[in-house]
Amino acid sequence: MGEEKKFGSHSFEVSNLDKVFFPKEGYTKGDLIDYYEKIADTMLPYIKNRPLTMIRFPNGIEDKQFYQKDAPDYFPAWIKTKAIEKQEGGTTNYVVCNDKATLVYLANQACITPHIWLSRQDRLDFPDRMIIDLDPSHDDFGEVKDAAKKIRELLGEELGLPLYLMTTGSRGLHIVVPMKRTRDFDEVRKFAQKAARFLEQEYPDTMTTAARKNKRGDKLFLDVGRNAFGQTGVAPYSVRPINGAPVATPLDWDELDRSSLSAQSYNIKNIFNRLGSKEDPWKDMDASAVSLTAARKELNNIFKEN
């Protein structure tokens, strides 16, 4: 049975609400839709005006998934899109999710996990986010937390970068730098790569920039590959397609001291208790945006590469 959803002048039917998407917990498609409707006001500022890639699971997390960049022809005309040229020719018509109606519509399309660009649609070549993805080699979240603190000492305290923290909802953490849109992706990526090599040099026993898994050993991988045109990161407050329906959750830095904290601490059920008892840690992050000029100069001073 379907149900009519109405948001202002936009209305559509949501369907198959009883279909189980997370078998272990019995969470249904209806639960996913309800989650995104409730989280929309908190989540929308982080995804607004950004091209979005849908990861869709028509029959739940234990069945086939597919990535979809192009908005299908059957999407309603009121859903905003951005046509972006492909290198091989032609264009991709990305969804741009600027309102609750669109977010709920995407959930009804079995889009469990929206991924977003690091730039906004009006200046695609100039990111306003830089991401360092802390990707552990094994499931010891204590090591991830320790690495995050060390990165904050070097990049935050020494280089003066504003650093924001988020559980990925999977295994690791994202450290995010809000940026003024003054440098293109190539410049930002070069800085991120050099910062990662600096960290690797400082902590050679625990951190690596080796992209190949067989070269990492037990070290934590500093993944800066998302800092490129057309690459995406998991959107804050997105649900991950994992048992328990964990949610990518912005954190305060002092929360790393909680022994109970894991990458999957928050999920579609308990996230609202959190948001009801504390302010969203990323709420004012854009006010901290930097240009990288001072940080790049300082990095060049303290890290001389052969």
Automatic annotation (TrEMBL):
This is Non-homologous end-joining DNA ligase. InterPro entries: LigD_pol_dom, NHEJ_LigD. Residues 28-282 form the DNA ligase D polymerase domain. Its EC number is 6.5.1.1. One of its GO terms (molecular function) is DNA ligase (ATP) activity. Keywords: Ligase. It comes from the Bacteria. The gene is ligD. Pfam families: LigD_Prim-Pol (PF21686).
